[in-house]
Amino acid sequence: MMVVRAHPLFLLGGVLQPSVLLLVVFFARGQPTGEQAARVATAVLLMAYWGSTVWQGAAILRRERLIGTLAHFMRGVRSPMLVLTGKALGASIAPALLTSVTVAVMMVLLRSPISVASPGWFVVGLVAAVLSGTALGTLLCSLFLLTRFGGQLSSALLYPVFLLAGLLIPVEFFPAGIRWLGWFVSLRWAQQFLVSASQGTPDFSALALLGLLMVVYAVAAVTSFRRIDHLARVRGTLELG
Amino acid sequence: MTRPAIEVELLSRWFGKKSKRITALHDVSLAVEQGTIVALLGPNGAGKTTLTKILATLLYPSSGSARLFGHDVVREARTCRRLASVVFGGERGLYPQLTGRDNLRFFGMLAGVKAGEAKRLVPELLEQVGLAEVAGRRVETYSKGMKQRLHIAIGFIPRPRILLLDEPTVGLDPSEAERLRQAVKAARDDGVTVLLTSHYLLDVERLADRVLLLDRGALIEDRPLSDFVLRAGYTAEVRVRGLGPPPLLPVELPEGIDLAHGPDEVNKEWALTLRVARWSSDVFAHMSTILAGAEVIDVDVQQVGLEHAFAQVTRGDI
């Protein structure tokens, strides 16, 4: 069927970005060990994955509109929501695998291989992170279709999301007044669970929150997509070829 | 009695808020029988594309209703999408980085074609539209005509019972355009109903059984093609050129002959155009009388066509 092509941006997000981020951390902080190494590796993994998949997923409908395939998409016999989810999942899985391999190889090359004490739960965490990314990508792509500034908004939101999730700076460093915002970013719980699973003490409350947020994103995505579909047919804004 | 393939009742569609409302369709009613090709004509902005979009379930009507084989395009949109395929054509609407084959497969999947069926249909359709040899090439390398042919294959892949075609021969060379017309005729012979929107009146003349004419959102003509051509009000145009002084035309021309243009004089040449209501031996005698004494160098007879009828009905507003 469809061939995943080695697009330069795909390689940039899946290979170059995580490698550079790891090198920066290692040169700045020295050799991390144990939990620290797991924290660094998962943070880099999630940042690179989020950067290349969630934001790619968020651009799906805008791309469809740009190339004039949106009308086909919206009048298909197959549920457009299902097709959109499939596309968002496709945009997630390939970069997730590539990023995981890059991080694992880089950690070995940097002489800090991560030992995962609960590999089964670690994989569950990764799968949950991918599904959560897919749901958020689908939600954002519906919301961004409503505005001409979708591209700018996705760039503007990228780093605040990383910050709120505590991937760049621990959330404890933020003022208490905005710390609560991090609760709504599934990345935070994904990292918490992955680190705990690597240490052999899976944090199931983090996994539950990750799952809950994924459901919330998915419900919001379906609702907003239906709304957009309805509005487009009422206002006549489904662009044709 | 079987239901019409397309039924439209008092359909209206407007855009914008009340103070700046633009009416695209106003109380349009029509019915199209199964297995016919109906041409939808009209000047730009007449409402043709709006009507096509409503039938394609891409737009909601503001009032009135539209049904495909009895299924409402709003309430039973999914069923209508199974029944009708739409071809908008143009250079967009395809995935440029995918091959022609993958585009056809993907859009077939969207249209509900099962994988096994697609495996059989995709090569068959690519062959039919003459893209078999380039099916493995990325669409971004295709010419305008090749993209148009791919659009047509995409329209045919779900084996629709209704085909909505918007400017299907744009970008096609004459032989490709003729091949497409044959494919559309073959579909009609298989019972497919075709609603054809085209500015190429040749497509309409070659294909249509019936003509619908929209003007400023209202349906102003709905008749068989042969009747529509008669709306021109004459059978032929006779263009006469000559040298020297032009003929002196009588104040009242004989019955059945009208003066369309002229006589115009340029560089010692003159030209005039007469319209003949119906051919008879008297027409030649009358013409001889009209042109008596003038030096005629050329006579060109043009049989009336759809173009003349269209110009007459829309008062040249095309």
Brief account:
Chain A contains 10 helices and no strands. With 241 residues, chain A is mainly alpha-helical.
What does this 3D model show about the protein?
The complex is a heterodimer of chains A (241) and B (318). Chain A has 241 residues and is an all-alpha fold. Chain A has one domain (6-235). Chain A is built from 10 helices and no strands. The longest helix of chain A is centred in the C-terminal third of the chain and has 32 residues, at 204-235. The two termini of chain A are 25 Å apart. The relative contact order of chain A is 0.14. Chain B has 318 residues and is an alpha/beta fold. Chain B has a 6-stranded mixed sheet, sandwiched between helices. Chain B has a 4-stranded antiparallel sheet with strand order 2-1-4-5, covered by helices on one side. In chain B, α3 (100-110) packs across α4 (115-128). Chain B starts with 5 loop residues before the first strand and ends in a 5-residue tail after the last helix. The model of chain B has no long low-confidence stretch (mean pLDDT 87). The A-B interface holds A 1-3, 5, 67-69, 71-78, 83, 233-236, 238, 240-241 and B 15, 50, 53, 56-60, 78, 81-82, 86, 88-98, 102, 105-107, 109-112, 151, 154, 158.
Tell me the series of helices and strands of chain B, N- to C-terminal.
EEEHEEHEHHHEHEHEEHEEEHEH
Which regions of chain A have little confidence, pLDDT < 50, spanning 5+ residues? none
Largest sheet of chain A: none
Global Rg of chain B? 24 Å
Total domains of chain A = 1
Share of helix among residues of chain B?
A: 25-40%
Number of strands of chain A: 0
- What amount of the residues of chain B lies in strands? 25-35%
Largest sheet report of chain B: 6 strands, mixed
Mean pLDDT of chain B: 87
